[in-house]
Design a protein that fits this description.
Layout: E1 14-17, E2 27-31, H1 33-38, H2 42-51, E3 59-63, H3 70-74, H4 78-95, E4 108-113, H5 115-126, E5 131-137, E6 142-143, E7 146-147, H6 149-156, E8 163-169, H7 175-187, E9 191-197, H8 203-217
Parallel strand pairs: 2-3, 2-4, 4-5, 5-8, 8-9
Antiparallel strand pairs: 1-3, 6-7
Helix pairs in contact: 2-8, 5-6
């Protein structure tokens, strides 16, 4: 699809997934979407979780990144948020049968890993009325000695209605940053589920944990 003036590059790959139901469903926006598609096989995971009644049906918008500009786009960049609002959400609403966010505040989710995990939490903190469910995997919550913008937003704009899943590997350099962010979220009353695994910083770990995150945030309706 055309990337518009909010993103770097003239075009951007977006892969849409529709669950096998006829009723409106929540949308989950996925940063680094083509990687989650190919390397994590996310639609297969979602298909199986829905079929096993372990999550409610959800739709996916798996959004490609800007290549060499990925770090810039995912560094808590409001232009990326605008790209979601002005390009991705209209496309998803046109092609998928989604819940109306004006009637179901915070029903959508956002997912990402590493820099995408940082951007996922930032997106939820900036737009909790849309993206009330955040899945952050191995989020890049620090740069050397500098903490990232979500820490400031958590301290000064508490929104305990936001539901958050975080995971990190015990053998990765971002473990301490994730523990620090998890503690900060809990101190400020956020609904957080945090999990660590005997894993590193890779799609094998994220693939193995993303299903549990989805089960936590999108349980089946009884």
């Amino acid at each position: 699809m055309p990337a518009g003036e909010w993103a770097i590059g003239r075009e951007r790959a977006v892969y849409l997934y529709a669950p096998p139901v006829t009723t409106p469903v929540p949308l989950v926006v996925v940063y680094d979407g083509p990687d989650y598609l190919r390397r994590a096989r996310l639609p297969v995971i979602v298909d199986n979780l829905i079929a096993q009644h372990r999550i409610r049906p959800i739709a996916l918008a798996m959004v490609g990144n800007g290549g060499r500009a990925r770090t810039l786009e995912y560094s808590c960049n409001d232009s990326t948020v605008m790209f979601l609002l002005e390009a991705i959400l209209p496309l998803a609403r046109q092609e998928l049968n989604l819940l109306d966010p004006t009637e179901h505040a915070g029903a959508y989710g956002v997912l990402g890993a590493s820099m995408g995990g940082l951007m996922a939490l930032f997106t939820g903190l900036r737009l909790p009325h849309l993206f009330g469910h955040v899945l952050s995997q191995s989020g890049a919550f620090s740069f050397d000695a500098y903490e990232t913008l979500p820490a400031t937003l958590v301290r000064h704009r508490s929104n305990p209605t936001l539901r958050i899943w975080m995971d990190a590997g015990r053998y990765e350099w971002l473990l301490h940053a994730n523990r620090t962010m998890a503690n900060l979220l809990q101190e400020h009353g956020y609904a957080l589920t945090y999990q660590e695994a005997n894993a590193g910083h890779n799609y094998t770990s994220w693939r193995n944990l993303v299903g549990t995150g989805l089960e936590t945030l999108f349980p089946p309706r009884r």
